[in-house]
């Protein structure tokens, strides 16, 4: 089952299926698991689901946003710790919250080019395994100590150490060029588009209700493998209500006009998600499922530093470029998966696409891109309810959408849109075969 055929024409990259861990609350059930542990667990679950033990897959591409500096080869280490053949190649990719989708795009392009017949894409992240670094002061002292050749020189180096130098440095939660966190950045966009607290809470409630329904219907039975006794996403709140959401305090943009709470923001989680990709005929020859093909993708970025655009608005630009390449309208899809970084993020994107002036003046379109049917959006819930282990979100979304499209039958078309730190965004089109 290894990769082998190259150079053939009209090759199609398809989603065979996916696997993920249930997403756990940060510093909770997976507190003792490393990011590598989680990625390996998701990988072994995928291998078991599709009978790939001992198989050399063409390539595994995955990544993590929060990765220890000592773990330079995360994905390869996961492969070596899994049931896959040890000669399976692997590569680390990282594009913040777009990592999982970008990995799927990377491998699907290789499959279409004939460089691979199969691949596994996704990502993992663990807030519980957040890497801590030595501060600049401690680094300087340790470097001088290591370079010292005499006891006196070593003691002189250590004498420069100050108590403040011993405080570890955690990864920044703020954008380096603005000093604003993702939530604080979204506050500006939320205000710009006039997204109300009520609209955000209502949207968040819908995400929890839809995910609850999907779990109860068994939708995730062939997409999730229990881990550490966790069988469902821990951030899911089946009993939440508008009244409970409305009672939560403001956490971003505090003040009289604040609208963003923990309830309408995606939570911090630990987890991993992967998808199995293959050339269509390769999958059919091995009697594997063929859920949907990856049609095309687009990556965009925005100038959020100057304030010209919101940090999380890049998908708003990626989507119309992608649609134009295929002669499609925003309404030409059966399903939409928009990453729910915040309820306000999704609502801001929808508002921007429906705004004629913005679409004309900012996106260079002849008019508004238009609206989409809310009944087709994130129909099994998304990040607000499932949680958001940064690099794992893309794999979760690709696998979910592919299964949904396959159930609707050949020709069913879906659109994915994921915002990412650094003012970036990734969009992709999937179509059932």
Describe this structure in words.
With 433 residues, the chain is of the alpha+beta class. The protein has a domain at 182-217 and 295-432: Peroxisomal Thiolase, Chain A, domain 1 (3-Layer(aba) Sandwich). The protein is 35% helix and 17% strand. It has 14 helices and twelve strands. The strands form two sheets. Strands 1, 2, 3, 4, 5, 8, 9, 10, 11 and 12 form a ten-stranded mixed sheet that branches. Strands 6-7 form a two-stranded antiparallel ribbon. Helix 2 (74-80) links the parallel strand 3 (60-62) and strand 4 (90-92). The longest helix has 20 residues, at 197-216. It is globular and about 75 Å long. 51% of the residues are buried. Residues 1-8 have low confidence and may be disordered.
- Mean pLDDT across the residues is 96
**Shape, please?**
globular
**What class do helices, strands and sheet pairing give?**
alpha+beta
List the secondary-structure elements in sequence, H or E: EEHEHEHEHHHHHEEEHEHEHHHHEE
The CATH architecture category of the domain at 182-217 and 295-432 equals 3-Layer(aba) Sandwich
Please give the share of residues in helix: 25-40%
Q: N- to C-terminal separation?
A: 22 Å
């Amino acid at each position: 089952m290894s990769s082998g055929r190259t150079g053939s024409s009209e090759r199609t990259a398809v989603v065979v299926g996916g696997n993920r861990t249930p997403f756990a609350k940060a510093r909770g059930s997976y507190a003792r698991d490393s990011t590598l542990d989680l990625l390996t667990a998701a990988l072994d679950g995928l291998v078991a689901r599709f009978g790939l033990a001992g198989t050399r897959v063409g390539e595994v591409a995955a990544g993590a946003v929060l990765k220890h500096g000592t773990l330079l080869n995360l994905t390869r280490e996961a492969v070596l710790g899994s049931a896959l053949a040890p000669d399976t190649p692997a590569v680390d990719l990282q594009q913040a919250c777009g990592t999982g989708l970008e990995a799927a795009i990377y491998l699907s392009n290789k499959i279409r080019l004939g460089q691979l017949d199969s691949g596994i894409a996704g990502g993992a992240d663990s807030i519980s395994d957040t890497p801590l670094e030595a501060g600049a002061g401690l680094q300087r002292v340790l470097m001088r100590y290591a370079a010292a050749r005499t006891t006196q020189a070593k003691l002189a180096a250590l004498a420069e150490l100050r108590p403040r130098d011993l405080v570890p440095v955690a990864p920044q939660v703020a954008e380096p060029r603005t000093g604003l966190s993702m939530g604080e950045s979204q506050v500006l966009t939320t205000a710009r588009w006039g997204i109300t607290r009520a609209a955000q809470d209502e949207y968040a409630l819908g995400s929890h209700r839809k995910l609850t329904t999907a779990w109860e219907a068994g939708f995730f039975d062939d997409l999730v493998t229990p881990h550490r006794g966790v069988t469902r996403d821990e951030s899911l709140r089946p009993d939440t209500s508008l009244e409970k959401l409305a009672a939560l305090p403001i956490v971003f943009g505090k003040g009289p006009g604040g609208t963003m709470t923990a309830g309408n923001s995606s939570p911090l989680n630990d987890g991993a998600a992967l998808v199995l990709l293959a050339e269509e005929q390769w999958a059919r020859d091995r009697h594997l499922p063929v859920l949907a093909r990856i049609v095309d993708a687009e990556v965009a970025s925005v100038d959020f530093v100057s304030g010209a655009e919101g940090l999380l608005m890049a998908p708003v630009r990626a989507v119309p470029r992608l649609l134009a390449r295929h002669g499609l309208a925003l309404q030409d899809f059966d399903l939409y998966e928009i990453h729910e970084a915040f309820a306000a993020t999704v609502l801001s994107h929808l508002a921007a696409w429906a705004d004629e002036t913005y679409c004309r003046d900012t996106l260079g379109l002849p008019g508004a891109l238009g609206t989409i049917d809310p009944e087709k959006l994130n129909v099994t819930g998304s990040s607000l309810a499932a949680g958001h282990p940064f690099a794992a979100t893309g794999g979760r979304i690709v696998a979910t959408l592919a299964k949904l499209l396959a159930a609707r039958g050949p020709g069913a078309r879906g659109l994915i849109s994921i915002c990412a730190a650094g003012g970036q965004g990734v969009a992709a089109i999937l179509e059932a075969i």
